[in-house]
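Private note to self, pasted from the team thread so I don't lose it. Backbone tokens:
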């Protein structure tokens, strides 16, 4: 384009009308006012035309082969796509050196690599990602530096020393010592009350009672308004069922395993994994999962996955009594906590095959 400019004529009605342009210099603080003439600017196309190469953008230019390749990648069969990929991989790279010499990087390649290096430098490593995932899991906090298995899940850490000390056990120990049965709603607990009391280990009796409180809290919860949630039972119902537990123990369980009167999937998983860790401690780190599965209303596959989350191993065992009677023995599953713990690893998602 060629541009021409000329001063526009002023009509009689605009004789007194003038235009000015102000130029302000910030360094000196002065303002210079200059009269601006009224101009008429016109553009004219140059006689000489640009060449066809100059008018064609390189990015918009595609050869017949490139168009055919794009169509093949979009609508071709799997065999056709594989053939196109093979041609692309085996293509001769003009920037590659002779006799398998390293490829010479151009300015664009170096800039791209520098940008990628800056981005990947701040990315988390696989170990850091695994640690972040483990930290966010709804499981009791494990001491991974422990040298003995009994120190991995310390009741004073995962529950609290003051809370355990407040758990009542007298109404269990006294009737049991007199030969009387203790009535509970959990078959897993019922099979262990006498054995635990007879051992004389009050800490384990308190742990078993705390496990029973968690079981009651889990089974008393009703379906919530949102899908997949449950409602915490009213305080008076909890107090009645947890009796003679003090209010401090009840509130501890409410706060730890619910939020705002609602039990979400995270809280439910946290409660179940606490139950399984406590069950392992009570049974000397090797527990039959059958009664636990029935009490917590879980499938065998589900309870196995919960045990895996706390680092336990699952092994199937046969019932020797049924086998001795000639009956078809049912397979039981035993969960065992032993060092080193085996936790589920962060899985890598494989790319989809084309």
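Design output:
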């Amino acid at each position: 384009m060629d541009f021409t400019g000329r001063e526009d004529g002023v009509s009689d009605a605009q004789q007194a009308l003038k235009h000015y342009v102000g130029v302000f210099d910030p360094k000196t603080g002065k303002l210079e006012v200059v009269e601006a003439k009224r101009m008429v600017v016109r553009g004219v196309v140059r006689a000489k035309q640009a060449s066809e190469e100059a008018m064609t953008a390189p990015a918009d230019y595609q050869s017949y082969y490139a168009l055919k390749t794009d169509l093949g990648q979009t609508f071709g069969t799997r065999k056709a796509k594989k053939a196109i990929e093979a041609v692309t991989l085996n293509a001769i790279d003009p920037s590659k050196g002779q006799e398998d010499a390293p490829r010479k990087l151009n300015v664009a390649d170096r800039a791209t690599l520098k940008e990628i290096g800056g981005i990947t430098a701040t990315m988390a490593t696989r170990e850091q990602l695994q640690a972040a995932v483990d930290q966010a899991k709804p499981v009791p906090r494990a001491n991974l530096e422990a040298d003995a298995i009994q120190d991995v899940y310390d009741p004073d850490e995962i529950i609290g020393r003051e809370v355990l000390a407040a758990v009542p056990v007298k109404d269990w120990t006294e009737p049991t010592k007199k030969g009387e049965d203790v009535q509970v709603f959990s078959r897993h607990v019922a099979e262990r009350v006498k054995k635990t009391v007879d051992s004389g280990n009050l800490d384990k009796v308190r742990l078993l009672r705390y496990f029973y409180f968690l079981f009651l809290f889990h089974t008393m919860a009703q379906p919530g308004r949102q899908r997949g949630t449950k409602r915490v039972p009213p305080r008076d119902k909890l107090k009645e069922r947890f009796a003679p537990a003090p209010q401090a123990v009840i509130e501890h369980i409410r706060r730890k395993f619910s939020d705002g009167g609602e039990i979400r999937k995270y809280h439910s998983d946290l409660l179940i994994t606490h139950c399984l860790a406590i069950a392992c401690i009570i049974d000397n780190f090797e527990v039959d999962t059958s009664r636990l599965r029935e009490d917590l209303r879980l499938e065998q596959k589900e309870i196995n996955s919960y045990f895996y989350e706390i680092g336990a191993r699952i092994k199937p065992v046969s019932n020797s009594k049924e086998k001795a009677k000639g009956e078809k023995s049912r397979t039981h599953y035993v969960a065992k906590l032993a060092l080193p713990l085996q936790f589920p690893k962060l899985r890598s998602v494989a790319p989809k095959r084309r």
